[in-house]
Request: fold
Amino acid sequence: MISITSNPIDSAAVTDAVRDHRAGAVVLFLGTVREFTGETQTASLAYEAFAEMAIASLEEIVAAAQEKWSLVRCAVMHRVGPLELGEIAVAVAVSSAHRGPAFEAGQWIMDTIKQQTPIWKKEFFADGTTEWVHPEQGVPPGRETAPTSAKGTKS
Amino acid sequence: MNVQIQLFAAARDAVGTSPVTIDLPDSPNVADLRLQLAADFPKLNSVAKTLLVAVNQQYADDEQLLSENDSIACFPPVSGG
Reply:
């Protein structure tokens, strides 16, 4: 299950998509809409995707994770369109025989999505202003998806 | 040669529309495309320095050569997740 949707994400369905008798560990990550960043108050968010490239990017990232870690299944769903506070923007689920790979791969998949996948977040602040979120670092690793380490930047 | 460029997010908002068409010299590369895009659309200045270019849905570096039928997209750094 790798998809982009404009419907609310069913986190139980994403989790179920990776459950398997071969797995002893199932890890689910949800990226949800947060109200405060420091003193700045968010009213809502909207996500936009370059859909065809984003799907290919998610598939590439999952394939890379499966090569690096011993995983049973992976599922990724990213939402586009407007989202209210608390709603799920992205769900990543990973299963593996043991918990180490599931935790590590889950984090790496999420970190890599944030660096590479052509999806953009627009903030609608409580003060009425809006702003596209565009990180300063510019060029992502690009074609290189080989995982280097499990740690990444915090979301 | 004429190329059509899909714009996204703040890049599209800056220009006001997507796709846009620009005219490039023969045997252009991505660097040529960046220059022409900035020249044709000065409103992109706010995001021009950090624009990413994807050719046929793969990130491209400045040296990559472009062909007539390439599918091109330009967009600011990503912020999904």
